[in-house]
Amino acid sequence: MPASPSTARAINDRLALRLLQQEGPLTAGQLKQLTGLSRPTVADLVERLTAAGLIAVVGEAGEQRRGPNAKVYGIVADRAHLAALDVRTEGVAVAVADLVGRVLAEASVPIGGDTGTGPAVEQAVTLVERVAKEAGADRLHTVGIGAPGLIDPSSGEFRDSTGLPEWHRRLVATLQERLPEARVSVENETNLAALAEQRDGAARDRDTFVLLWLGHGTGAAVVLDGALRRGASGGTGEIGFLPVPGTTALPSATDCEGGFHSLASSAAVVSLAAECGIPATPGEQTPAVGVVRAAVAVVRAAVGGGPGAEASPPTAPVPAARFLDALADRVAVGVASVVAILDPGCVVLGGEVGQAGGEELASRVRDRIARMTPLPTEVRATTLGGGAVLRGALLTARDRAQEELFTPGEPPPQPCRAGRPSGP
Questions:
Q1: Distances from the Cα of 412 to the Cαs of 12, 41, 225, 302, in angstroms?
Q2: Cβ(165)–Cβ(182) under 8 Å?
Q3: What is the pLDDT of residues 250-275, one digit of tens each?
Q4: What is the mean pLDDT of residues 153-158?
Q5: Cβ(171)–Cβ(87) under 8 Å?
Q6: Contact at 8 Å (CB) between 16 and 49?
Q7: What domain of life does the UniProt record list for this protein's source (predicted)?
Q8: Which residue ranges form the domains of the chain, and what is each CATH number?
Q9: Highest mean pLDDT among 73-77, 89-93, 207-211, 295-299
């Protein structure tokens, strides 16, 4: 069925805007080449988008032709401002960006476990307002929040959970009250980290992979055929509850102690390091990251002849190597379980601990998985670390804002000529 002229215009406008977002500023000639549309059609859409305030002339290009230089068009980045939040049990980080995703200001604030619900919410909301002011944002169009816990896929709200601070749930509602014009949404932190790794990180070449989050707690995110899978209740990837050998009890419906969490959480990592003779580094804000980073540095120095290698006795790397081997044994238990069920072909070790372990930890896990399963599986270290949550929240906020501002309610962008079918 032929597309109506209005639908064709909307599809073409959205396609041009996506290209400008992905490629950066372009001339009308470049838009014609990339879209395959006719010169008059491109001229019309450029006029429409300029009149709508979505694009503007940002410069000139000296093309190889007679006449004046070609105008270069770019998205009006300050048409909308976005906020991204990474909400943890111990604090919150905020970034404010423009419509193309360029970060204009960011900050974080710790929130102690003894802070009351009201004061904790006020600290977090005040931080959002302060960062928005520093970014020059009079109002926020979209706010994306990444937080631990289960998010109901039907309502987009937190499910009941006894393991998270009450201020997490209150924060979402309070932000919506204080920012009534903003579109506020919340997503599981590990899911957002996976989206960031797929767009900008270690899984850019993968349509199917699993992100194993190693941080304060443990989690997993599943991306199959390019789509994030949340499950019937939003609980896909709650690997902390996975019963595993090597623990003294079984997890319960309200407590993941005894599950994979007991093997690979930050507290478990610090305890394992102490058993291997590696004490926590004084002053480290995240002790698990400190011990993993220290062990990796010792092993790399000894193997690669880096700084300190000659001064260290031959036995110096042994505790560090023993610790990394033992940690890899534990992580491999979780990875092998994921591989046996999903066969993703690639597992990314994410989170702050995954980043600290880097290739030293990833290669050890990779070797173990090769012996534990016949299914070929790449094991990669994160390239974004703990920052993946904030990045993922920003990407989803940008996508949502652009979806609404560009051409809301229209089908995905494909080149289309008015009055003719857009398909084959």
A1: 10, 19, 18, 53
A2: no
A3: 898 888 888 999 999 999 999 999 99
A4: 72
A5: yes
A6: yes
A7: Bacteria
A8: 5-75 (1.10.10.10), 79-191+388-404 (3.30.420.40), 202-383 (3.30.420.40)
A9: 207-211
Q: Which residues pair with 98 in a beta bridge?
A: 81
7-21, 86-100, 386-400, range with the lowest pLDDT: 7-21
The number of residues in the chain equals 424
Give residue-wise pLDDT tens across range 71-111: 999 999 899 999 999 998 889 999 999 998 899 999 999 99
